[in-house]
Amino acid sequence: MKKLIVALLLVLPLALHAESLKSPNGELELTFKVQDGVPTYALNYKNKEVIKESKLGFELVKLDNLMKGFTLVKAEKSSFDNTWTPVWGEVKTIRNHYNELEVTLNQTSTDRNILIRFRLFDDGLGFRYEFPQQKNLVYFTIKEEHTQFAMAGDHTAFWIPGDYDTQEYDYTESKLSEIRSKMNITPNTSQTSFSPTGVQTSLMMKSQDGLYINLHEAALVNYACMHLNLDDKNLIFESWLTPDAQGNKGYMQTPCQSPWRTIIVSDNARDILASKMILNLNEPCKIKDTSWIKPVKYVGVWWEMIVGRNSWAYTDDLPSVKLGETDYTKTKPNGKHGANTKDVKRYIDFAAENGFDQVLVEGWNEGWEDWFGHSKDYVFDFLTPYPDFHVKELQQYAASKGVKIMMHHETSASVRNYERHMDAAYQFMVDNGYNAVKSGYVGDILPRGEYHYGQWMVNHYLYAVKEAAKYKIMVNAHEAVRPTGLCRTYPNLIGNESARGTEYESFGGNKPFHTTILPFTRLKGGPMDYTPGIFQTQLNKVNPNNNSFVHSTLARQLALYITMYSPLQMAADLPENYEKHMDAFQFIKDVAVDWDNTVYLEAEPGDYITIARKAKGTNNWFIGNTSDENGHLSKLDLSFLDKDKKYIITIYKDAKDAHYEKNPQAYVIQKGIATAKSKLKIKAAPGGGYAISILEVKDKKEMKGLSKI
Amino acid sequence: MKKLIVALLLVLPLALHAESLKSPNGELELTFKVQDGVPTYALNYKNKEVIKESKLGFELVKLDNLMKGFTLVKAEKSSFDNTWTPVWGEVKTIRNHYNELEVTLNQTSTDRNILIRFRLFDDGLGFRYEFPQQKNLVYFTIKEEHTQFAMAGDHTAFWIPGDYDTQEYDYTESKLSEIRSKMNITPNTSQTSFSPTGVQTSLMMKSQDGLYINLHEAALVNYACMHLNLDDKNLIFESWLTPDAQGNKGYMQTPCQSPWRTIIVSDNARDILASKMILNLNEPCKIKDTSWIKPVKYVGVWWEMIVGRNSWAYTDDLPSVKLGETDYTKTKPNGKHGANTKDVKRYIDFAAENGFDQVLVEGWNEGWEDWFGHSKDYVFDFLTPYPDFHVKELQQYAASKGVKIMMHHETSASVRNYERHMDAAYQFMVDNGYNAVKSGYVGDILPRGEYHYGQWMVNHYLYAVKEAAKYKIMVNAHEAVRPTGLCRTYPNLIGNESARGTEYESFGGNKPFHTTILPFTRLKGGPMDYTPGIFQTQLNKVNPNNNSFVHSTLARQLALYITMYSPLQMAADLPENYEKHMDAFQFIKDVAVDWDNTVYLEAEPGDYITIARKAKGTNNWFIGNTSDENGHLSKLDLSFLDKDKKYIITIYKDAKDAHYEKNPQAYVIQKGIATAKSKLKIKAAPGGGYAISILEVKDKKEMKGLSKI
């Protein structure tokens, strides 16, 4: 498969100061220059400017900066083309095909060399800085990375505020020039914004001449997470790294490199969704035996707490808790502790009856009376259950029904404490039959002064994943740094939150267009545990004191299992809410969580997304559409189906009068027979969508009574 | 043994604002008052002022301070008297005898209660703040503790500069009023001084009217280490806690308390040395089975590196190291790597031949080419030996000779890294027959911004000790926070550095009076791994490039095994240096490291100390004297010996013309017979001292040829 085309070594005369490179299909062109000693790059797509001439460089602490005085001493070009197979994913195999330009720069005054490696794919550009070990550059501390992304126009952007601690913001769609005026910092348990024009990656943009541009990073390892700060007079974004407790932004030891800075570009929005460039820029899988890594569909004791009907805490008696000193058996139970043996068994029953793999249980362990906001060090031990949660009994019960319980490790961002207990906590999981953990990092980080997205924590998150792999444990980390494709290298990282998830529907709601943006932004780095599937969208029906509602129709909730790609999918609503709509729930039961193929049918960020996916190892397809507050009319062509096959198609769509706010539960289910020649015309309601299952007919009897659709 | 005298509960009228308390022997008197809402205390000794009226209180972050507006709502007095047996120590049993005053204060405006608990012993006062759990005080953050110690005069003090990161300073003897002008911050690999009049505890003082006063703290647990800042106009010391990375000084969750603030006082300097008050203020031993905790006499591969003759590093090839990536077998050995199998065997042989328990080996593991000063996170793994250090072979060799190898864990102050590897590192020790570790914290702390003496690190050091106990490992931590008597509670903490040790004799030298002060200061909190026993005091004889010399005579080097109490004693010099003076070395071979009794014969801080100790489980006594640059003439009375016994006495003393600089190796050994009636007159040279062994005669033949001394 691997086809390494012979590198063209071009050792050029000292006068050299410019290089250019084209993508394999020739549509993208990179230009690299050293202008008056300053390295710059620019990127065109089909002769349109994507990135105007933009500077590159680093400001260092105590050392001379790596910003100017450079000469280009060497330029090497090469090509690479291979195809690899992900452990799980949207497609069965992924082609990694790029042309590469590696430039070596020498800073004359300090005699230091740096390399910049550009990889130009048909779907975009990735580049990174590399720092070889050398006499004059062994250790250095980054004050700031100054990588520019000079925009060619006042694009429309889909952005969230830059923040060192949280990504749980609603998106704003605005012109770049409007970012400053539309900056809206909504509250969170831990947050640190830094600039009136600072935004986060992955950032999605659309130019007036129809280019879709995505800025992000790949392979964020032992480095601070990058934000983008906009010079809104000149429309130039510049990297803005997350600092540490002392204000420094990175501790480097050569040989080392930055993460890849990525620019995905196309004139077709669907190509942005389809791009696997960020995965391709990550290292191949480092876990040898991956047989234990399996996609997971799950339910859990969670939404009942998020909605406020039940509690994580066991008692209301305690103003604060000292683990190991507080005797819970002497406290009065508050009567609404969700993670109790009886109710967990009900979830296990429901999971087993409906084909779910796992049951997440949050609030099972001591400490929840008092768990964040107090800079508390020893907040959880990850081992000690509440008196009403019987670990062994539940494990046996779950095992007898072929279901696993999913572990929950809320760290409260007290990461020293988590690391101290990590081995014992993972061993406890192994001993008790758990193979997946949802971890959480709510609140300000301990060590105090560190941020969620600084180098220290970036190091921690990966440590937790690598340690978990030793125990064959899959990790789904919430409130962690947003992913950058590391799931290729460590596929036991099966999920992350790192965005505003479904929980916010209970905290005032997400904007109706939210799920038409996330696949263009947050999901470019890796899957999100979005926890869809809320059927009872009026939350006061679950908790009379909760006046929020889910900004989605029920039909769209089904679609999210397709549009929000993840190998880990929760059916987040309460069993009793599903039991009222078992016809619609059938889609969640049927839908796959791992795929052999994906076809991006329609896409426009902020408006709609329609995706078809072929379930792993089958001929079954599933389609999902999510639409913004204006709804959307899809005209679909099922030509991706096997021409020789017939399929039972079931369409779960918004009823005519459905509306995310006024009539969210109005759905229609249509069943018929489909072939590759079928064409569909389906309307998504405002804030609506639809889901479709297309199951291969294996026995003609299945078609009885059904007509072509 | 335990005799808890009935508490006198005095619930007094609201007008109450003063209380007083006397020590069991009546010589110390504490007065506590609430003056205009501010709590104050004062301490007298034999009617002399020790502490003038001094304020108490806390400044908090974001909450109202706990400084004023208090009323005294309750005062309780009680007495306590018991005797306990330390696992190891200077004496067989320790009496814990005090009168206690517990005052409850209410801050009316906030309705918060705090308690102050005073324990008045015959040898001093300990007091601490206690914060009960209450509605209005659950979590709080300390901005500063404002505990005053108002001095009654311009005392002579023996002090080192206040510093958040190091105690490795030479002492200055000066008036309090001269501290500012004599402040001298000598360089260290990690240091942070904070005030021109800041000093460290334990602080030793002497008043003009002959009072000896020591200020320190006891039971420093989960709290920042206290420094003292002097208001040198008014001669008032005030507590100055070590901050964290954000400048805060303590994160507290009620119920909780401060460490004990301690004032040891007497008109006889020997009582300061004899005081066990700091141990008494610590909690009883929390380790149930202590059978594995044993005092240790050791030699080691260490001084040869300290002197600069050999190196910790294996090679000089590497500008920096990445553990796991650097292949040492491909580097060129530098030929002076100390921790090589062959030379370690030589040390094992020497240890076995001379009755030592262990051989410390530093520099055995990969990473020393590049080990501090670079804020390096993954600096050591504590598991991987250099190619020339064969763990199994050496363990077998050592075991065959009845000797253990002592583990060395240099953390480079990268404590996240250490904690991540700690379990594996301790398990490695167990698997390979190690039972004691010397740990080190050289360089600036990671997490960055934290200090060696902040709450974060205080928590870490104890964590390392408690985790070690699970593996039955003894800990000797260097560069850690200075001890505060925690070795009572965790007797596997058998040593600490936390002061300027013998190594500085190789880095320019310690002042000649250094060892006449340490027992009054640093040693009050717990034993020090001072690493005495340097016979070749002219260091250019070991390394021609080292022009330092040890500021001590050879005879005094012997004395330190007695005057510097520790259950862990190193004979730090090279075997070949001992082999040239086997007659003097006999004392080191004979001397015990655990004791049934101690008699403090003579003491004057900064001048001289003479101590006699009775070896555990024997009738053998050992005496040591250390003297300052003026020397000292001792007139000793051996009446502490058993009246019915005879002893072989061997005196190792400075020759007449001995001098720490001009003639350090001039010693005389005198042997004879001693009884309880014997009287000795021995002169210590300038920077000199003497050592005496007094071994019970069990067989008259031993006395043959010896005469009464």
How does this structure look, described?
Two copies of one chain form a homodimer. The first copy, chain A, has two domains: 2-280, Beta-galactosidase, Chain A, domain 5 (Distorted Sandwich); 296-594, TIM Barrel (Alpha-Beta Barrel). In chain A, the strands form six sheets. In chain A, strands 1, 7, 8, 9, 10, 13, 14, 16, 17, 21 and 22 form an eleven-stranded antiparallel β-sheet that branches. An eight-stranded antiparallel β-sheet of chain A has the order 2-3-4-5-12-19-18-15, with no helix packed on it. A seven-stranded parallel β-sheet of chain A has the order 28-27-26-25-24-23-29. Chain A has twelve helices and 37 strands. The longest helix of chain A has 17 residues, at 415-431. In chain A, 15% of the residues lie in helices and 34% in strands. Chains A and B meet through helix 7 and helix 8 of A and helix 7 and helix 8 of B.
* CATH architecture label of the largest domain in chain A: Alpha-Beta Barrel
Categorize the overall geometry of chain A.
globular
Indicate the radius of gyration of chain A in whole angstroms. Answer: 26 Å
Mean pLDDT of chain A: 96
Please describe the biggest sheet of chain A, giving its number of strands, its sense, and whether it closes into a barrel. 11 strands, antiparallel
Which two protein chains have the largest interface (Cβ within 8 Å of the partner's Cβ), and how many residues from each?
A-B, 30 and 30 residues
Distance between the termini of chain A: 41 Å
The number of helical elements of chain A comes to 12
Unreliable residue runs of chain A: 1-15
- Which class do the helix and strand fractions of chain A yield? alpha+beta
Identify the CATH class of the largest domain in chain A.
Alpha Beta
As a percent range, the share of helical residues of chain A equals 10-25%
CATH superfamily placement of the largest domain in chain A = Aldolase class I
